[in-house]
Each structure stands twice: as structure tokens, then as C-alpha cells.
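Before we proceed, please read the two lines closing this message. Tell me what the C-alpha cell row says about the fold.
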Amino acid sequence: MVGSPVWRVLTTEPVAADDIAGRISHVFNGLFRISAQTVMVGGGAEPLYLPATCDQRARLVHTRDYASSALHEAAHWCIVGAARRRRIDYGYPYYAPPRSAAQCQRFFSLELRCQALELLFATAAGQSFEVSVDDLDAPQTTARETSAADFDTEVRAAAIALHGRGLPRRAARLRDALAAEFSAAVVPLG
């Protein structure tokens, strides 16, 4: 079921919606600005990763002031290796919607691990999570809704598995820092 709870988050303080993306960026920058020469900034019309140049740190741009975009872009950054971090948008091709069935399948396979990690970050930050199928222009059909629901189930199962195996070092550091910033205690329910 889309949006079914897999995690329960206990927060000790309310978080103003308009401040969340800035706080996520602040946490990310505190961890990685120096150690990984990467900064996260908001305000982008579209999300974008720009690799470091000789005179500028790498930039991870999230859409406008959307917390979900900041968490999603952070998840991508935590997953990709050093070679991909030297390429604009990690060298991934972007297929504009509407997408063919084959392109949608490729999207789901590439996004599964990223969105599982995003779910763990959202939980740590006390935020809700919804899968992104990233094809908002596609007609609302039973097949599309079914694939989104199936993808949601797969993302949640992958998040439980990832949590059980242990997160990669950068991802674990970010998750723990987000939980500290947002005073969230993460309690797995799976």
C-alpha cells in the first residue's frame, strides 16, 4: 500500500515546514563541506549535481525549498562512487516524461536503492516519505498506479534490508546527524 508505515518516528520538538530543507542542507554541509568538498544548496528549478572544479566545491542542488528533494539528492550523493561524482548529475541520462514502459522499468531499478535510503533519511529527519515515480505527465492508469504501489512496497522492503545490513559510512553519518538535528528517535516497525 502506498504510504504504508514501515517506521515510527518519535520527535521531541515540532519542525516548521518552511525551515526543514534549510536545516537538512545545514546538516549535510556541516558533515561534507570540508571532508568531501561538497555543499548542498536549495533554490534550484530542478535538482542538479555539479562536480567540483579547481576553484569551487561540488554542489548538490535541491529543488526550491523542498525537504524531500534535499533528502533525495543526498541519497543519490551517498550512493554514487567517486568516479560518478566527477560527472554532472553523476553521468546518468535523463529521459523526459512521458516515458516508455522500458524506460519506466529502468527508472524503477535505478531509483530503488536511492529511494530506500531517502526513506531512511526522511525517517531520521521526522519527515513523511512518498515514493517518486517521476513521470507526473503520464496518464493515470491502473497499470501506472499498480507500478507505483509495487515500487512503494519494493522501496520499503529495500529500506528494511539496508537498515539491517548497515548503511554505507557517509549515509550512516548523515542519517545519524539528521536524527540528532531533528531530535528523532527511529524505531523500526518491520
Summary: The chain has one domain: 7-188. Residues 1-17 have pLDDT under 50 and may be disordered.
